[in-house]
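Repro:
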Amino acid sequence: MGSVNNKLRYYRRIKDLTQDELGAALDVTRHTILAIEKRKYEPSIALALKIASFFGVPVEEMFFLEDGEEDDQCSD
């Protein structure tokens, strides 16, 4: 499977939130927010859903595969 990209920084800046503020709202550390934004950490499904819900966007809008990469589905 390809690497997951995200728009977390984009949406955080739209809401004018610091990494600390967003982390507190989501009950995670600033380091977790930083790691997700820098693509050093892929959040669990539960956290990804929580993040998307916080910003009011579909999870697939917030997190997505890199362009040109396809998932490992078989095509019979």
